[in-house]
Amino acid sequence: MTQNLSVQQITAGPDTFPALLQHHAQVRGARPAMREKDLGIWQTITWSQLEQQVHELASGLAALGVLPGQHVAIVGENRPRLYLAMMAAQALGAIPVPLYQDAIAAEMLYVFQDAEISVTIVEDQEQVDKMLEIAEDCPALRYIVYDDPRGLRNYGQTNVLAFDRLLEQGREHAASHPSYVDDAIAAVKPADTAAMFYTSGTTGKPKGVVLTHHALIDRGLAIQEFENLTDREEVLAYLPPAWIGQNMFSYTQFLVTGFTVNHPESPETVSIDMHDIGPSYYFAPPRVLEDLLTRVMIRMEDASAIKRHLFKYFMGLARQVGVRILDKDPGVGAWDRFKYGIGNVVMYGPLRNALGMSRVRIAYTAGEAIGPDLFVFYRSIGINLKQLYGSTETSVFVCVQSDQHVRADTVGAPIKGVEIRVAENGEIQIKSPGLFKGYYRNPEATAESYTADGWYHTGDAGYLDTDGQLKIIDRAKDVGKLADGSLFAPKYIENKLKFFQYIKEVVAFGADKTEVCAFINIDLEAVGNWAERQGLPYAGYTDLAQKPEVYALIQQCVEEVNADLAADPKLCGSQVARFLVLHKELDPDDDELTRTRKVRRAFIAQKYGILVDALFQGKSHQFIETEVKFEDGRTGKIAADLKIADAKVFPGNTRKAA
């Protein structure tokens, strides 16, 4: 099956990021471009001020010897000055390389060596220390520039430079070379590399994804047109800038559309800052939405019996008619609309406010598949949450759900300029103006990512339904079959389990096996709150995870999912027959998750092979000792005798799926 859309070039105004910045400074110079919360007070930077600071910073980078085509690493949380650094690098024709701020030094070493980073601009002392740790093995690294000076007063290295000092050098350079930056901006072309993002490395070493100004801006313009975005949108930038999803929303889209981006004071204050700003355009991966829902459910469990009863009643009503009302379905009766209106006053409105989403006009989720129950929850309370589909290599936007055509089981139709086809093996393949230029210094991987006739391999399995909506089943390499030939889609099962507030992470196994088994991570906050209400003492995650009462709680969740799966003709054979609760949380520092918290399935299967074998061999418990890494670089071991539990499997609906 193939769906072809005419590939239309989207062109409107400036076609490079430095040119876009100049445009906004001229057209909306007095409008707020960025805000940052500092010591509880929001500080505003206008577009005119932003352009001036970027100009000075670009001059400073030029004084450090940064040249077109060179790579500049950006490391830290969402901070205006780090965004300025990306813009300044692009103004010189250099290439910003955002890195995950929570990555350990050893992880950064590979990127610094691969990209031959010469200058890095970091947030604070923690990041400076990482840079100094790897500097000896990175001969190309000449300067480390830091934003936050706390703790760095006594650092005497000549190559460690304060951001303010770099701005001073920029002003000095501009005085002696007044046209240098403007000439550099004029030399930047749409086909030049705008940024490089490293993949999460779920199957090996990260690869540098090279994206041009044209690819990124084209996709930004496509979504601006699709959603009628304006310069009045408010966006909260709270996710890692190194993730293409956040970068696309709060950097590319910001410079394409000219709206205001707000930077929270810290990761811990995001919820409060959401209330302050009231974003109109919001983006969150499923894990963030899961965490928000978990907090809501914890608060409801601590509420009075009357409030719990009202919550249960009105959420039941929301599931019945809320999504239909949001989609403007004329078939919803007046009585149901009246009851929902009351619910909006007493329950849904306060709930949206508690989530910081009272003003959200458009909310997107992406990064991985979202559980249908979680998706429906947000839409049922009146939040216009939609799914989109894409990847780093595609500049994010491939498919987007349009208003009133939103379904939990699709990721929308191809957006303007995109062509999609489904290969014989079920893999989704695409053509798009947003496709990457290639993998940095890896022509073999670049060639392997395309078919012989020029279509990009997404690696995802799915199909286009009769409405032209794309359905993603799973990663193509993860979709398999059980020993009896029935479909096994692990991500689908995992997402259904993760809807429960007590379950944080799941890894399902079953390909070529007679049954499905699973590892489960409990949510320490949710289960800890539950344990306290039960009067159940515990001494930490490992102790709590192995409590018989916790196993009984998780078993209820598993069996509820099994009952749902039993009604699905395609997946009734994928019910979870056995499970265990892991003795530790899966962690990116232990290589079990990527920095975007995607499960490294093959690595986990290998690392915990003894547990996988125990599940399928029918054992009732298994001892394991696991090495873990701490944030300060030390290692330790966690040992436990893990209980393995059986779950009830229900008779399946074996009728042939249509």
Work out the helicity level.
25-40%
How would you describe the shape? globular
Major β-sheet strand ordering: 1-18-19-21-22
In the CATH scheme, the class of the domain at 480-646 would be Alpha Beta
Number of helical runs? 21
Describe this structure in words.
Helices cover 39% and strands 21% of the residues. α1 packs antiparallel against α2 (47-63). The protein has a domain at 480-646: GMP Synthetase, Chain A, domain 3 (2-Layer Sandwich), CATH 3.30.300. The radius of gyration is 25 Å and the shape is globular. A 5-stranded antiparallel β-sheet has the order 1-18-19-21-22.
Topology of this structure?
Layout: E1 2-3, H1 17-27, E2 32-38, E3 41-46, H2 47-63, E4 71-75, H3 80-91, E5 95-99, H4 105-115, E6 119-122, H5 125-135, E7 143-146, E8 160-162, H6 163-176, H7 180-187, E9 193-198, E10 208-212, H8 213-227, E11 234-236, H9 244-257, E12 260-263, H10 270-277, E13 281-283, H11 286-301, H12 305-326, H13 334-355, E14 362-365, H14 372-380, E15 385-389, E16 399-400, E17 413-414, E18 419-422, E19 427-431, E20 438-439, H15 443-448, E21 456-464, E22 470-475, E23 480-481, E24 487-488, H16 490-498, E25 503-509, E26 516-522, H17 524-533, H18 541-545, H19 548-566, E27 576-581, H20 601-607, H21 609-616, E28 621-629, E29 635-646
Parallel strand pairs: 2-12, 4-5, 4-6, 6-7, 7-8, 11-12, 13-14, 14-15, 26-27
Antiparallel strand pairs: 1-18, 2-3, 9-10, 10-20, 15-16, 16-17, 18-19, 19-21, 21-22, 23-24, 25-26, 27-29, 28-29
Helix pairs in contact: 1-2, 2-3, 2-6, 4-5, 8-9, 12-13, 12-14
